[in-house]
């Protein structure tokens, strides 16, 4: 319910004139949390006998409307403003006072028991806590589940392993996807660990952390009110001067987000590489076809979602650098780069949430195996000779691999020519057993996988045979 009438007052107008910087306003989620804090503060002050109940009720109702996003157009100040967020706090005070009625003063009533120095960073902490809890963590859980389902589905698909982008011993596609799923599971753990500190807010410290001009029970009552409204766990600061003087918790969360970006980069790159081709690339996966890949080359399909994820990851890593520098920029009792930190941190949370959902729904859920590609790569890697090491020694195995690579002959033929027993070779160079590694004996059937019906990419069934190298 946006209004065209200007509700804010002179301090907001000064800030608009002073900061014509980016054209980008303070994130809406911060504004909404400023509204929630103002409402909770009015209710707490009334309960403590500091504020007339009628005035408190008017403030709380107006603040609730701000928190609901009904007056977002009344917050025009550029995000690059005074480093404490004072201008946006004054903006909130003025708008809420105008909505509450003529008896309400923006500073004496709406801002009672508060300072920009404790209110604005509290709003940023709670906006980050809210979005990370209700948007990012669910998105990452969805991606983890998608990857886990594919890990199970692909558990018997043997392909070439690769290290340094060079041929390595075979692995299963399921093993690779289980690794991706674990990356995303650990990402959630890192974020949750950081949120333990993010939920500690400086509200109640007023100007410098001493709590001057506020009731000693004000902050506790306001926090309880906020928790009741949002179901978020919100804590007191470990130390009021720590909470006021730095934004280390937000830097910590940004660092966890950077790790998520690094993990997504690894996953997206691998998916794009395995899906490359279809004829001249790795060609081990079929990624879902989402749109035309070229305006000139007919039939070309590109890994568009992995490319989006890679760009998002780059942006998040850049945002983390800005947040880190912002976290360093405070002297004595106050960090003064809070709007910068808010802008970059909240953007990172949003981008990682949407990109993770897109990767799960538009790529992972629909990806299928190119059996020709996985069979070809599994059979082609000469690194399977590694399995012979304990039987013939590293040097002998090296001689066989080098001779096969130089001549292009099949590894088995060269091995037998070099004196390896055929029965030994056939029992050891079993691709599924090699991919199982130290768990090979758990496969049963003497360490060999049992043939079973498996579903092909076109929906039919076929009997899977034990794969052996043809290199």
Give your account of this protein's structure.
- This protein is mostly helical and 471 residues long.
- Helices cover 58% and strands 6% of the residues.
- The longest helix has 38 residues, at 116-153.
- The model is unreliable at 446-471 (pLDDT under 50).
Rg, nearest Å: 30 Å
Largest sheet: 2 strands, antiparallel
Question: What share of residues is helical?
Answer: 55-70%
What is the H/E order?
HHHHHHEEHHHHEHEEHEHHHHHHEE
Strand order of the largest sheet: 1-2
What is the number of E strands?
8
What distance separates the N and C termini?
69 Å
How many DSSP H or I helices? 18
Query: Which outline best applies?
Result: elongated
Average of per-residue pLDDT values: 93
Structural class by sheet pairing and helices: mainly alpha
Quote the beta fraction: 5-15%
Q: What are the segments in which pLDDT stays under 50 over at least 5 consecutive residues?
A: 446-471
Architecture blueprint of SSEs:
Blueprint: H1 10-18, H2 28-47, H3 53-67, H4 86-100, H5 106-110, H6 116-153, E1 158-163, E2 166-172, H7 173-198, H8 218-230, H9 240-245, H10 248-274, E3 285-286, H11 304-328, E4 330-331, E5 334-335, H12 338-362, E6 368-369, H13 371-380, H14 389-392, H15 394-407, H16 411-417, H17 422-428, H18 431-436, E7 453-455, E8 461-463
Antiparallel strand pairs: 1-2, 3-6, 4-5, 7-8
Brief descriptors of the model:
mainly alpha, two-stranded antiparallel sheet, 18 helices, two-stranded antiparallel ribbon, 471 residues, single chain
